[in-house]
Amino acid sequence: MSEYLTDEARDTHFRKLADRFIDTANRQTEDTDLTVINSALLYAAARFCSFVIASKAGEKDRYEKMKPEAIEYYGEEFNKMLAQNLENYGEVFDDDGGEKDTH
Fold first, then answer.
1. List of residues 6+ apart from 10 with CB closer than 8 A
2. Please, what are the averages of pLDDT over each run of 10 residues along the chain (103 residues)?
3. How many angstroms separate the CA atoms of 18 and 16, rounded?
4. Who has the most CB within 10 Å: 3, 49, 68, 75?
5. φ, ψ dihedrals at 100, nearest 5°
6. Closest-CA residue to 37 (of 49, 47, 46, 28)
7. CB-based contacts of 56: which residues, under 8 Å, 6+ apart?
8. CA-CA distance, 73 to 93, in Å (whole number)?
9. Contact 67, 53 (CB under 8 A)
10. Residue 30 and residue 37: Cα distance in Å, rounded?
């Protein structure tokens, strides 16, 4: 499906999919500590990334060769996404350093 989408449509689909995962995590905040939810999301992402690499490798030798590159790639991608999102969240603070009223 995604190979037929425009870049804009692919980006929109990507963001909607991410929003669904975030919505699921947000619903857990009613009865679970944020740090536990965060750890669970990180663990789930790591497991799914591992599944993707194993699926693409198809065989053990290729999988073993792909592991170091996958660790580097996913680490760099996470760091870029984290830096960008931290920058975006910095905007929720007012000029005095306090959190803005977002209601």
1. 2
2. 80 95 96 97 97 97 97 98 93 73 50
3. 5
4. 49
5. -70, 150
6. 28
7. 66
8. 32
9. yes
10. 11
